[in-house]
């Protein structure tokens, strides 16, 4: 069972959250006295405790969610906390609900006409999904050797990609010069470094070991290795052609999936480190200019009513610049991959109509 020190630290997080009046995280809301009492002594087989789950939200009081799963077992062992957080984040997905089978929408791509054929609003479109390699836990439980082995395996897999559009090169973070790295980050291709939410979750250990990025020449198909998730598989391009972006994602994902078995949970779908990314793990987004409607008071509500999430220009926890927003589906669990993309597609279509009609 968890040591007295760990149990005390869990109590301290609880007390800190209760005292933090401007904290609005789902962790604060759902980490009740009861949940603490029932779970503070538990340990997963890999040794993870409730402290590992809650320490990011305990340190970062501005978290939206505040919890991570150190290993797959945590989702069941600490379900008293995960279930209500998951239900609230994913639009009412209950403890008794099950993620539908995968449907990437291969047959529906024809329905996804370019959202912005005149190029007036949408700067770029991106769809990503997360995957975990079977047999490895998540970041806080990975050893340095694990990271190296996973990277080696992925390099072998990337080398098997011969599709002329998708083939590319793997660039490890280890040894990458700052100029190259910072340019990749600024251009929205690479994950940022030193994310404080991940750091507090013990997810940045041995950095940059085992971390890196694969991409094709055009940087339209990319795979992040060992950042928040083992893999983030990404398709992106300029403009609003969601269908092209989805089609490329499906092709690339299938190539990687053919070589690497991924961890899937019977109820929660594709397993990832953050409970917001379960199920489809799909975040489909546009970078979009909506100067008129975004200046209005009801912009946030319009977006949340359409189940859209607003992020800033450099992703989560960043600010919007020059009136450009990152708009995506919020829900990733409890619907199919195609429906997740569709949530973004239909919502953004509506936002563009509203922008055109606004004065
Ligand atoms: P994730 O989408 O993987 O959850 P972030 O929100 O941190 O993580 O975004 C990662 C990067 O992808 C950021 O640089 C962000 O600006 C970029 N990005 C997201 N959506 C788009 C888009 N539609 N076009 C271009 N870049 C994008
Ligand atoms: C937070 O709670 O703000 C961070 N741990 C990130 C959570 C992921 N957020 C999201 O909306 N996908």
UniProtKB/TrEMBL annotation:
One GO term (biological process): phosphocreatine biosynthetic process
GO molecular function: arginine kinase activity; ATP binding; creatine kinase activity
Record key words, sorted: ATP-binding, Kinase, Nucleotide-binding, Transferase
Record SUPFAM superfamilies: Glutamine synthetase/guanido kinase (SSF55931), Guanido kinase N-terminal domain (SSF48034)
Classification via Pfam families: ATP-gua_Ptrans, ATP-gua_PtransN
Superkingdom, natural source: Eukaryota
Annotated Phosphagen kinase C-terminal domain residues: 121-358
Protein residues bound to ATP: 124-128, 188, 232, 283-287, 311-316
Phosphagen kinase N-terminal domain segment(s): 9-91
InterPro entries hit by this protein: ATP-guanido_PTrfase (IPR000749), ATP-guanido_PTrfase_AS (IPR022415), ATP-guanido_PTrfase_cat (IPR022414), ATP-guanido_PTrfase_N (IPR022413), ATP-guanido_PTrfase_N_sf (IPR036802), Gln_synth/guanido_kin_cat_dom (IPR014746)
EC number per UniProt: 2.7.3.3
Family note: Belongs to the ATP:guanido phosphotransferase family.
Name by which UniProt lists this protein: arginine kinase
Organism: Caenorhabditis briggsae
């Amino acid at each position: 069972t968890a040591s007295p020190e760990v149990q005390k630290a869990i109590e301290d997080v609880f007390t800190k959250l209760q005292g933090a009046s401007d904290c609005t995280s789902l962790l604060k809301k759902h980490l009740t006295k009861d949940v603490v009492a029932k779970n503070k002594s538990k340990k997963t087989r890999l040794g993870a405790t409730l402290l590992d789950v809650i320490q990011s939200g305990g340190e970062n009081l501005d978290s939206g969610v505040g919890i991570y799963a150190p290993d797959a077992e945590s989702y069941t062992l600490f379900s008293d906390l995960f279930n209500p957080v998951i239900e609230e984040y994913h639009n009412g997905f209950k403890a008794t609900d099950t993620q539908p089978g995968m449907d990437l929408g291969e047959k529906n791509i024809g329905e996804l006409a370019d959202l912005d054929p005149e190029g007036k609003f949408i700067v770029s479109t991106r769809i990503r999904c997360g995957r975990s390699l079977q047999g490895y836990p998540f970041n806080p439980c990975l050893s340095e050797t694990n990271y190296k082995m996973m990277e080696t395996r992925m390099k072998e897999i990337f080398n098997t990609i011969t599709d002329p559009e998708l083939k590319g090169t793997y660039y490890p973070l280890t040894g990458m010069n700052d100029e190259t790295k910072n340019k990749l980050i600024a251009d929205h291709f690479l994950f940022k470094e030193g994310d404080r939410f991940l750091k507090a979750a013990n997810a940045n250990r041995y950095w940059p070991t085992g971390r890196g990025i694969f991409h094709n020449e055009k940087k339209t198909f990319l795979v992040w290795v060992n950042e928040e998730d083992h893999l983030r598989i990404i398709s992106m391009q300029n403009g609003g052609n969601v269908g092209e972006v989805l089609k490329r994602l499906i092709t690339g994902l299938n190539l990687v999936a053919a070589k690497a078995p991924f961890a899937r949970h019977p109820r929660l779908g594709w397993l990832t480190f953050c409970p917001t990314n379960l199920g489809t793990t799909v975040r489909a987004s546009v970078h979009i200019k909506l100067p008129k409607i975004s200046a209005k008071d009801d912009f946030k509500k319009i977006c949340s009513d359409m189940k859209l999430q607003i992020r800033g220009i450099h992703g989560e926890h960043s600010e919007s610049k020059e009136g450009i927003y990152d708009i995506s589906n919020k829900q990733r669990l409890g619907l199919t991959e195609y429906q997740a993309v569709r949530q973004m597609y239909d919502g953004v279509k509506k936002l563009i109509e509203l922008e055109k009609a606004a004065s």
